[in-house]
Each structure stands twice: as C-alpha cells, then as structure tokens.
Amino acid sequence: MTRTKEPVVRAAGCVLWRRSPVxxxxxxxxxxxxxxxxxxxxxxxxxxxxxxxxxxLREVAEETGCTAVPGAELSTLRYMAxxxxxxxxYWAAEATGCRFTPSDxxxxxxxxxxxxxxxxxxxxxxxxxxxxxxxxxxxx
Length: 140
Fold this sequence. Notes:
The chain is α+β, with helices and mostly antiparallel strands. The protein has a single domain, classed as Nucleoside Triphosphate Pyrophosphohydrolase (Alpha-Beta Complex), CATH 3.90.79. It is built from three helices and seven strands. It has helices spanning about 50-65, 115-120, 125-140, and strands spanning about 10-20, 25-35, 40, 45, 65-80, 85-100, 110. Strands 1, 2, 3, 4, 5, 6 and 7 form a seven-stranded mixed sheet that branches. A hairpin with a 4-residue loop joins β2 (about 25-35) and β3 (about 40). α2 runs antiparallel to α3. The chain starts with 7 loop residues before the first strand and ends with a helix.
C-alpha cells in the first residue's frame, strides 16, 4: 500500500508564559531539542483529525510537563522543513503547573525574560512571536 504524503505538514504549539515565582516578572518557556540542537517554542505535528488547539496543549504537556490555560491565537508560521511546507499555529498559553522530565525529544527547558528568550531562539522566524505575545498580554 502506497501512502500519499500530505502536501502541508500541520503542527501547533504555544508561546508558554508564567509569572516568575521569585519576582513576578514575565517569563517565557523555551525547549531544547537535542536532535536539532535548537531552542524553540513547544510545538509538534498534529495527529490525524486533531483540533489544533488541543494539539498545541498536548504538545506543551508532552514537551514541558506543563498544564496551560490557552489565550489568544497568535500568528501561524509557514516555512519549508525537509522539503515540505510546514504550517504551525500558535497560541499564547499561561503555564499553571509544571513538572518537567527530560526525554529524547526535549532534554531541557528554560524560563527566560522576553528579551533573553528572543535572543536564545534559534530560528529568527520564532522571534516575532515574543512581541506578539507581549502585545496580547498588554491588551488582556
């Protein structure tokens, strides 16, 4: 049986945030993927028929160990990955509890200030989501 590849890889994730337990400052969560040695937002491919927001929250839980309350939908990023168009829908999401366990997929997470997160993100395209989140939170 021949499987036809979907023309667009559908994925979803979150710009996960919290207030620092130390000083109440805004912190953003980045994940480190050892396979690519990069820092990015928690995200992943959607399962067949999966609601994108449900998939984004599932990926956050799997990659960071965090439960989250979703907020506004942010931009959808589109780019080429392994010769295929990848489309990633993002939401702002507030972490409500975390219990991170390293895995082969994500071996580290960091909670950083918005400026530090912007600098640490490996892909330039991911950086625009920092400003978008800040705008969204100011309006909330």
